[in-house]
Write a structure and sequence with these properties.
Elements: E1 3-10, E2 13-19, E3 24-27, E4 29-30, H1 33-36, H2 54-59, E5 69-70, E6 84-86, H3 90-93, H4 97-109, E7 116-118, H5 128-133, E8 138-139, H6 142-149, E9 152-155, E10 158-161, H7 173-176, H8 180-200, H9 204-211, H10 216-227, H11 229-234, E11 244-245, H12 255-266, E12 275-280, H13 291-300, E13 305-310, E14 314-317, E15 329-330, H14 339-355, E16 360-363, H15 367-380, E17 384-386, H16 395-404, H17 415-424, E18 433-438, E19 441-446, E20 449-454, E21 461-463, H18 465-469, E22 476-479, E23 488-489, E24 493-496, E25 505-509, E26 513-519, H19 523-528, E27 533-542
Parallel strand pairs: 4-8, 5-6, 6-7, 11-15, 12-13, 12-16, 16-17, 22-25
Antiparallel strand pairs: 1-2, 2-3, 9-10, 13-14, 18-19, 19-20, 20-21, 22-24, 23-27, 25-26, 26-27
The structure holds zinc ion.
């Protein structure tokens, strides 16, 4: 009986412990596979080409009942929770990024999430990042040993002729003794150890964006996966612990960037005012703690809805400025916005203003952000007013902004309503709520009973049991007839509302208890796994 205990997930990538009953190994890892699976060499019909036609696939059904379980895009998947699945010939997929993505999605969709993924004969220091990013965790030394046989020296940046051995590029034990085989194996293990660190820090995407530049196919695979938005988005946590480094053009297509924009357009409810001011972003997050935004807010004095125009997120309503990734991204600021950036962000603004009509929209912007606002206005037929002839924080610009808003009424500041609409897709009744705390560490109450607090790490709302009363539907995980002690595990879950993502706040509902907590898996994976934590519980209430 084998088992894969996932410790940390980052998109499709995972770290964890794989147990075979005899031994256990911390994944991702590379080792001689026969040490884990002694019968591997005698397993029959496990080596079909990925592009094999159906007739051939049907002719050679794989042996069942032993590990690893061979899976193939055209075959019904026999793998169960805890198995190690093996995809033969995956190194050939790397040559065709479109097939790679199609096959990967096909295989992932029909395999339980708590399975270890073995790609035999595939891993090199130069491709391990994209393999782990795609959800493979177990590798062997066949591919690096082949490079050794070809007299090639492996590095994460690519392969070099073996005469660089001893040149100082690497000083590992293998290099010191001019042992190419040892160097190549150690280089693979080092790269996998580094990848594990990035997964644990929830920042594998940043490493992949940097590593993939050396190989066009790797860039293409990352882009194809981004284009498969429904698949990729589902696997991404709703918030991460660290900073999102939006340092490349691909950041614009990153699924969590697109998810933010989609939710701002489709879920978010703006406050009841018909005047909007478009503002530039600030390096400091949340924006309102920056010097520039303090000036903007003094000039606006609550007389307009504040919308921040920014790359790569598009549009950040003031109420959402703390929510991941709005409160957690870092971009290289040059003042120059490239054509693709302008077009993607103008499209987001145009979609937003088509959905939410304002009587007046004031663009307190300059440079690239101003150009984007003008492009959006052209697209959706709105008229902008302009208040910046100079830098937006210049005295004259701030005076012009103040003057433009003369006579407009102060709007009610209702952050809670905006945040609840974004996070839970609801129109929350906030009448009678009070707020206390030191921004952004806020607590919301109604009739002196606390209903929400803010998780300052992610900027997300955390409902109390009384808060959940105000959220009529969605984000529920239904459990069996038991009282949870600690976290709710997958086998205890009966069903779960659709659309829950890793990291979402959820209410656990059972016949004998309620619990508040945070989902550890998306709905689909809660329902098709057999092990692991489904909800990290914060509070339990017996019924
Ligand atoms: Zn070395």
């Amino acid at each position: 009986m084998t088992r894969f205990n996932i410790r940390k997930r980052d998109g499709l990538a995972r770290t964890g412990i794989f147990e075979t009953g005899i031994t256990s190994v911390k994944l991702p890892f590379a080792l001689a596979a026969e040490t884990l699976f002694p019968g591997l060499e005698s397993l029959k019909w496990t080596n079909l080409p990925l592009c094999a036609p159906m007739a051939l696939v049907n002719q050679f059904p794989p042996e069942t009942g032993s590990q690893p379980v061979a899976i193939h895009p055209l075959r019904d998947n026999p793998a169960q929770s805890g198995d190690c699945v093996m995809v033969a010939n995956w190194h050939t997929a790397l040559l065709n990024p479109r097939n790679y993505t199609d096959w990967l999605i096909c295989l992932k969709e029909k395999t339980p999430v708590d399975t270890a993924w073995y790609a035999p004969g595939t891993a090199l220091p130069s491709n391990a990042h994209i393999l782990c990013y795609s959800g493979f965790d177990l590798f062997d030394f066949l591919a690096v040993d082949l490079k050794t046989a070809q007299a090639l020296f492996c590095t994460p940046e690519g392969e070099f002729p073996a005469d660089v051995l001893g040149s100082g590029i690497c000083t590992c034990a293998g290099c010191q003794t001019e042992n190419l085989l040892q160097h190549n194996r150690e280089a693979l293990l080092r790269e996998i150890a580094l990848i594990s660190r990035f997964i644990e820090a929830s920042q594998l995407r940043d490493l992949v964006e940097s590593r993939c530049r050396m190989n066009a196919a790797h860039v293409a695979i990352m882009r194809h996966l981004d284009n498969q938005y429904p698949f990729t988005e589902r696997h991404l946590p709703i918030a991460r612990s660290g900073v999102m480094r939006a340092n490349s053009g691909e950041s614009l297509q990153r699924a969590e960037v697109r998810r933010f924009a989609e939710r701002v357009i489709n879920r978010y409810c703006p406050p009841k005012t018909d005047v909007a001011v478009l503002l530039p972003c600030s390096a400091k997050k949340p924006y309102s703690l920056s010097q520039s935004h303090k000036k903007f807010q003094r000039a606006i004095a609550g007389r307009a809805h504040e919308l921040i125009v920014t790359s790569p997120l598009g549009l950040v309503p003031r109420e959402l400025e703390c929510i991941y990734p709005a409160g957690h991204y870092d971009v290289p600021v040059t003042g120059y916005w490239d054509a693709e950036e302008c077009s993607v962000i103008a499209r987001i603004l145009a979609r937003y203003f088509k959905r939410h009509a304002y009587r007046r929209i004031i663009a307190h912007l300059e440079g690239g952000a101003l150009k984007v606002a003008q492009m959006a206005a052209g697209k959706c037929g709105i008229t902008l007013e302009f208040t910046c002839k100079e830098h937006p924080t210049a005295e004259s610009a701030l005076n012009a902004l103040d003057a433009a808003l003369a006579g407009e009424r102060r709007m009610k500041d209702d952050r809670l309503h905006g945040m609840a609409s974004y996070q839970f897709s609801i129109d929350l009744e906030t009448k009678g709520t009070t707020v206390r705390g030191h921004y952004p560490d806020l607590f919301y109450s109604k009739n002196n009973v606390q209903i929400f607090s803010i998780d300052t790490g992610t900027g997300m709302l955390r409902p109390t049991f009384d808060g959940w009363h105000l959220i009529p539907e969605g984000y529920r995980v239904y459990i069996d007839d038991f009282i949870p002690e600690g976290d709710v595990l997958v086998p205890g879950v009966v069903r779960a509302d659709p659309g829950i993502r890793d990291g979402d706040e959820v209410l656990v509902v059972g016949p004998r208890a309620l619990a508040t907590g945070r989902a550890a898996l998306p709905t689909e994976d809660i329902l098709r796994s057999r092990r692991g934590v489904a909800v990290r519980v914060r509070k339990i209430k017996r019924l």
